[in-house]
Structures are given as C-alpha cells and as structure tokens.
C-alpha cells in the first residue's frame, strides 16, 4: 500500500473501532468482519470480496503495533495541517514564511540538528518505506503470507495426556503449478520496468520527496508477464490440506498452539504466515482442573465422616485409596500426589478430592432410633458465640 493510502484511508473506520481501541478489540473486530465478508462465505459477491480486502488491509496496519504507531503519527501530522506550504509564523499576518526544513536543522539558525543531514525528506521517506530515520527506501520484496487461525475441541483426557490429531483446513496454499512464483510454467517473473527491480519509486513535490512501494509491481520488484493458468499470477490457490498437529500434554482451555510457516503462502514466493490453533477443552463428567491439579468431588455418608473410612477413588490412569480420618467435616480436601497433569519438566500436579457429606432426606425407624440414641450421648455443638446475639432478639 502507498503512503497516500495511509494518509487518506481511515483504517479505524474500516474496522468499526475507536482510535483508542486496544489490540484485542481490533483483533476481535477484524475476525468478525473477515468471517462475514470472506469470499468462501459469499461466492460471486464482488462487494463482499472488496470488503474483505478492505478489512484485511486495515488489520495489516492496525494489527501491527509498529505500523499502527507510524500510521497514527502520519495522519496526525498531515491532519493537523502542520506541514502545509506557505504557513505563517506564530499565526501572525504578514509573518515570515515558515520553512519546514528549519525544524530539522536545515535552516541557518543553527538550532537542534538531530535531524540534520537527511533532513525532512529522509524522515518522511523512512516513514513511507518502513525504514529507520534517515535510512534509504527499501523494496518490499515478496510479501509474507497472512497468519491463519482455527479452533479445535479436545476431550478432557486428551488435553491432559497430549494427543496428535489430523487437522483438515480449507485455506490458501502454494500453487502446485507455478510453485508460488505466479508465472506460467516455463517462464519466470521479470524485473519491473517502472522501478527496475527496486520495488520502490521516488517522486518530488516541491520541497518534498516521497518514496513509496512501486504501484506497478506492488513493491515486489518483479512482474509476471505470463500468469499461471491455475492461480492467475497470485502464487496461491484455495485448497484442502490435512496437517497432523501435536497437542502437548497439559494443554489448557483457551491456549493457542503456533505452527510456524503453516499459514497462508506468501505472495510470489514470499514466506508463509503462521497457523494458530485455539484449543477448546470439553468438560469431563468427573474431573475438573485447576492449573496442573485435577479436582474430583466424592460424596460420603455421615457414618463414614464420623467413623472414618478408606475411600477408593478413580484417577485418569487407575485408582488410589485415600484415608478419610474420623471426624472429617464436609468440604475437606484430600490430596493424591502426582495424580494430576504432567508438567513440561516431567513433574505432575496432584488430584484434589473434595469430600461431600450426604445427609439422607428419609431414614428408617431403626436408623432414626439409633440417631436419637447417638444424639442423646453426644454433646451439643458449641454455639455460645451465637447465643448472645440470639438473646438480643428474644
């Protein structure tokens, strides 16, 4: 995209977000709009295709912190009118003409010379070309492919143990006919006749000199004279591909797995983007998870809580026996060490067993008589700290 695009196009409006929007808000807006306007979901709709290109172009700038910062600075400079030619000094009628080069050490005043040498022209050239301050414009070269995101749902046990699954994607891939260079088999891309392979052009406008990506070759430096009949010169086609993705042991719900170079192919042989796999873990009917620990709720009877018992409970790889001590209250947590999620260093979390004392809604006459005998021989619960407050309302 050219410097003119950066000045004239409002990428925030394209994504429907405010200029103060966070990176997450920008990403969320892009994903929503990209899904709605994706060509695969709107076959034959040229308007949707243009909207998809617009939001993709906007996210390519606003989704990159460095590019977003440069974009904001450029629009702020030009939007303020600070660099319009013929500006008057200090707003005074008839004042001395304002020479922008004075700001950068180009005047005779001998002021701050931090920008001397390349001066104003090199400063703006560096903004438009993405180079450093005072640096020469550089060709963009073959464009890197965009990153791709997808979502995979894993069973709870697979997430804990780790699993390798085939992942089928329908997404852009490298054209098998031209192998990504966009040229018809038997031919090769040639140097752009406008920029002579540099990928950038420079034009002078009075006091300004602008360097920007060559519009004829889109900054690549080469053009395809005879386009590949399969991909029509883009170097990529939409295809179905299957990848075997390894999800490591202990992968958590919401975690993203990055597969470098498995995203969209680059334009005309450029490097491919990355594939990010968002993990969703299905809940288990028995186990829960807190960090590297597994959790389990186990009901016990009132008699087991009072008298104590040996409790046999399941784990993901067998069973363990836990000792419930006499007088155990409801809600006590017992720990089975090493029976949780295996960490990256080989150590494992624990299984945390929460005991829930179950009180029966109905009991037999014999059980009731036994409980009444038990109650008569058991001292009442200590409630002295409540009695004083109760007496206040009696």
UniProtKB/TrEMBL annotation:
Keywords: Chaperone, Cytoplasm, DNA replication, Metal-binding, Repeat, Stress response, Zinc, Zinc-finger
Domain CR-type, chain residue ranges per copy: 162-240
Pfam families to which the protein is assigned, alphabetical: DnaJ, DnaJ_C, DnaJ_CXXCXGXG
Cofactor binding, per record: Binds 2 Zn(2+) ions per monomer.
ZnF bounds (CR-type): 162-240
CC annotations in GO: cytoplasm
CXXCXGXG motif repeat residue intervals: 175-182, 192-199, 214-221, 228-235
Predominant localisation class: cytoplasm
Location of region: Disordered: 33-52
One GO MF term attached to the UniProt entry: ATP binding
Domain topic, free-text comment: The J domain is necessary and sufficient to stimulate DnaK ATPase activity. Zinc center 1 plays an important role in the autonomous, DnaK-independent chaperone activity of DnaJ. Zinc center 2 is essential for interaction with DnaK and for DnaJ activity.
UniProt subunit comment: Homodimer.
Function: Participates actively in the response to hyperosmotic and heat shock by preventing the aggregation of stress-denatured proteins and by disaggregating proteins, also in an autonomous, DnaK-independent fashion. Unfolded proteins bind initially to DnaJ; upon interaction with the DnaJ-bound protein, DnaK hydrolyzes its bound ATP, resulting in the formation of a stable complex. GrpE releases ADP from DnaK; ATP binding to DnaK triggers the release of the substrate protein, thus completing the reaction cycle.
Name by which UniProt lists this protein: Chaperone protein DnaJ
Organism: Micromonospora tulbaghiae
Lineage of origin: Bacteria, Bacillati, Actinomycetota, Actinomycetes, Micromonosporales
């Amino acid at each position: 995209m050219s410097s003119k695009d950066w000045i004239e196009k409002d990428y925030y409006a394209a994504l429907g977000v405010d200029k103060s929007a966070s990176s997450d808000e920008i990403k969320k807006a892009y994903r929503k709009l990209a899904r709605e306007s994706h060509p695969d979901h709107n076959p034959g709709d040229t308007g949707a295709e243009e909207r998809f290109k617009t939001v993709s172009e906007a996210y390519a700038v606003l989704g990159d912190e460095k590019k977003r910062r440069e974009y904001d600075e450029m629009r702020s400079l030009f939007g303020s009118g600070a660099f319009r030619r013929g500006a008057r000094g200090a707003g005074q009628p008839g004042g001395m003409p304002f020479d922008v080069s004075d700001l950068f050490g180009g005047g005779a005043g001998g002021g701050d010379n931090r920008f001397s040498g390349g001066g104003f022209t090199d400063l703006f050239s560096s903004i438009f070309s993405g180079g450093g301050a005072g640096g020469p414009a550089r060709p963009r070269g073959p464009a890197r492919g965009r990153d791709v995101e997808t979502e995979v749902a894993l069973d709870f046990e697979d997430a804990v143990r780790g699993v390798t699954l085939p992942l089928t994607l329908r997404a852009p891939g490298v054209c098998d006919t031209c192998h990504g260079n966009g040229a018809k088999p038997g031919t090769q891309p040639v140097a752009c006749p406008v920029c002579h392979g540099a990928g950038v052009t420079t034009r002078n406008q009075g006091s300004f000199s602008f360097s920007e990506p060559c519009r004829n070759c889109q900054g690549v430096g080469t053009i395809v004279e005879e386009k590949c009949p399969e991909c029509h010169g883009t170097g990529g086609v939409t295809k179905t591909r299957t990848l075997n993705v390894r999800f490591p042991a202990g992968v958590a719900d919401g975690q993203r797995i990055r597969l470098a170079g498995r995203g969209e192919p680059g334009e005309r042989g450029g490097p491919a983007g990355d594939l990010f796999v968002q993990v969703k873990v299905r809940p288990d009917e028995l186990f829960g998870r807190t960090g590297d620990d597994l959790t389990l709720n186990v009901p016990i009877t009132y008699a087991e809580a009072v008298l104590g018992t040996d409790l046999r409970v399941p784990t993901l790889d067998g069973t363990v026996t836990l000792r419930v001590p006499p007088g155990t209250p409801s809600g006590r947590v017992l720990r089975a060490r090493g029976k949780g999620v295996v960490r990256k260093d080989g150590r494992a979390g624990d299984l945390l067993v929460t005991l829930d004392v179950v009180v029966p809604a109905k009991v037999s006459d014999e059980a009731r008589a036994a409980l009444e005998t038990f109650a008569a021989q058991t001292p009442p619960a200590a409630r002295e700290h409540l009695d004083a407050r109760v007496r206040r309302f009696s």
